[in-house]
Design goal:
7 helices, single chain, mainly alpha
Amino acid sequence: MNARDDAKFPPVALWQINAMRFLFLLMAFVMGGFVWSQLLFESADWPVMRGLAKSMLAALALMSLIGVRYPLQMLPLMLYEIAWKTIWLTLIAGRAWMAGKWTPDIESLFTDCIGIVIAYFIVPWRYVWARYVVQAMEPLRAPGPR
């Protein structure tokens, strides 16, 4: 991104940029701290899917470090975090709660995921709309010779 690109999009308040930095910092160190310690010291006997999920979360935590420095450029990573947690909260936890099938495992993951609600108030949605929905798509192929 450069100054010319930034002029095409709505301005993002400094408090939002710094709040996104803080969220990326939490993702990197809080979530990353738990996940990386589990991967390094507990993972030998895990089922394959648990190991896969923890590895993906560890990668997310590593990528979040870049978001601390470049929050707008790493905004898609934040959107991914919002998307998967919202999907899980509504389609898995919500259905389990409505069906009376709430378990301690669901309760634990619910506690881990519900904090994402804060991100809904921090993400610059006008910027997201302008950048990822309204902006013209990148070309599918190189332009022909002139």
